[in-house]
Amino acid sequence: MQGCTHVPTDDSTAAQINEAAVASRGAFAEMVSALNTQVAGRALMSGTDVRTVPLASANDMLTDIRTEIGGAVDLPTIIATVEVWFNDPAGGFAADGYLGNKGSPIIRHVSENTSVEIDARADDPAVREVLKGAALAALADDLPGLSQATKTSLLQTASAQLYGSSSNLVAVQARVGSAESAVARALVETNAQQTALGLAQNNLSLADPFETASRLQATQLQLETHFSVTARMSQLSLLRFI
């Protein structure tokens, strides 16, 4: 999304408030699109269910939340409804927002003594908190009948939530980056063994070293793309304006 949106203040004009609301809805859609990234037909943020995109569309999620809000136009009801929708362990986001696997994370063995856990999913609590804040801001453009004051308060509240959740999103990036580094180190070691042993079996993994290197490179690509997706989320304009 081009440009940089600013959080409206109590002195903002109606045009500025509406512009911020429209931009916020676009930012939420961009977040969902980033999390639904696929590589070679495989979803990255769905856990082991790589054939299913992890999230419902931004429009579908907002429609579901809007249905739960009903005709309410007061700030406390809107905020409380969004909180319940994203935090309900059996409904809302858990049932209709996140569509991927909810089981154990993907574990890849990259050497005899090293394995990496790929646990970055779109239902990670840190990611969910960012989506919650972004959805709250998007509702400023999505709910009919809101006063300018309520729109302003929604955007300000969403901004505060996004600011508070940003450090946890960085932690997700760090976990992915750490796993990526482990794969890179293992790949260097495997390539060294490949050069030394040629076509001999890899004594550590009992596999052809060429095949081992290929698997490691595929895992490294997956981790790099996970890191790219979470990095893109932290750079979206809705996060930059806080």
The gist of it:
The protein is 62% helix and 5% strand.
Give structural notes.
This protein is mainly alpha-helical and 242 residues long. The chain has one domain. Helices cover 62% and strands 5% of the residues. It contains 8 helices and 4 strands; from the N terminus they run αββαααββαααα. The chain has a two-stranded antiparallel ribbon with strand order 1-2. Strand 3 and strand 4 form a beta hairpin. Helix 1 packs antiparallel against helix 7 (209-234), helix 5 runs antiparallel to helix 6 (148-197) and helix 6 (148-197) runs antiparallel to helix 7 (209-234). The two termini are 16 Å apart. The model is unreliable at 1-5, 199-204 and 237-242 (pLDDT under 50).
Radius of gyration: 21 Å
How far from one another are the termini? 16 Å
The residue-averaged pLDDT reads: 79
Q: What characterizes the major β-sheet?
A: 2 strands, antiparallel
* Secondary-structure class: mainly alpha
* Rough outline: elongated
Widest sheet: strand order?
1-2
**Domains (count):** 1
The percent range for strand residues is under 5%
**With helices defined by DSSP (H or I, 4 residues minimum), what is the helix count?**
8
* Low-confidence runs: 1-5, 199-204, 237-242
Helix content: 55-70%
How many DSSP E strands? 4
Task: Write the H/E string, N to C.
Answer: HEEHHHEEHHHH
